[in-house]
Amino acid sequence: MIFTVAIDGPAAAGKGTIGRAIAARFGFRHLDTGLLYRAVGAKGGDPASAARSLTPDDLARHDLRSMEAGQAASRVAALPEVRAALVDFQRRFARSEGGAVLDGRDIGTVICPEAEVKLYVTASAERRAHRRWLEVGGDAATVLSEVVERDRRDTERSAAPLKAAADAVMIDTSDLSADEAVARACALVLAALNR
Ligand code: DC
Predict the structure, then answer these.
(1) DSSP, residue by residue, 71-120
(2) How much distance in Å is there from the Cα of 194 to the middle of ligand 1?
(3) Which atom number of ligand 1 is nearest to the Cα of residue 8?
């Protein structure tokens, strides 16, 4: 069975939590595509060469979740050559046998417009920054400005900017618990599987 769940949305909206939960519930494979860009940013050197030569070891680095790695990822992600180098891998993953969930910024719009389920997961900047702050700690105002800056860069770039696909279902997690958001997303996947 070829079946793709595309999840897009801004930083710390809950895409990863929802993506992992869908994968576990339905036995699909999950790809956090932000990790690809984080690994390219962390590798240093020429970003396009880094993107073309990514290895599993690059993705297993332990420093990819930091705020600095997020900012570096957002910067290299604006480069069309970097995005182009990562497209084939993501497309193959999306259409591989057995079902796949991908979360990112351009999955439903560019990587897999034919996805059977498209979700756009969002929340207020304040809620997202608070969640990120619970993970990374530090100064809350700095975390909020980092989230806002990254949203702006990801939304305003010309190469595959963050935006909801026209046929995506919006899930606003501002006032939802993780369990509620997951339940909503799983119900949409189940409905599409039964169609
Ligand atoms: O999802 P994340 O916070 O780990 O993503 C880090 C950065 O990578 C994000 O700010 C923009 C970029 N990104 C992207 O441009 N396209 C994707 N599909 C995923 C991430």
Answers:
(1) HHHHHHTT-HHHHHHHHHHHHHHHTSTT-EEEEESSIIIII-TT-SEEEE
(2) 31
(3) 18
**Residue percentage of the chain with pLDDT more than 90:** 98
Alpha-carbon 31 to chain mean position: 8
Residue extents of the structural domains in the chain: 4-194
Structure pTM?
A: 0.97
Q: Which fold has domain 4-194?
A: Rossmann fold (3.40.50)
* Residue 189 structure tokens: 């996947």
User: Which residues have CB under 6 Å of ligand 1?
Assistant: 11, 33-34, 37-38, 70, 73-74, 77, 104-106, 150, 154
CB 59 within 8 Å of CB 36: yes
pLDDT digits 0-9 by tens, 22-42: 999 999 999 999 999 999 999
Structure token digits, residue 46: 């020429």
Cβ atoms of residues 171 and 122 within 8 Å:
yes
H or E, element range at 171? strand 169-172
Q: What is the total residue count of the chain?
A: 195
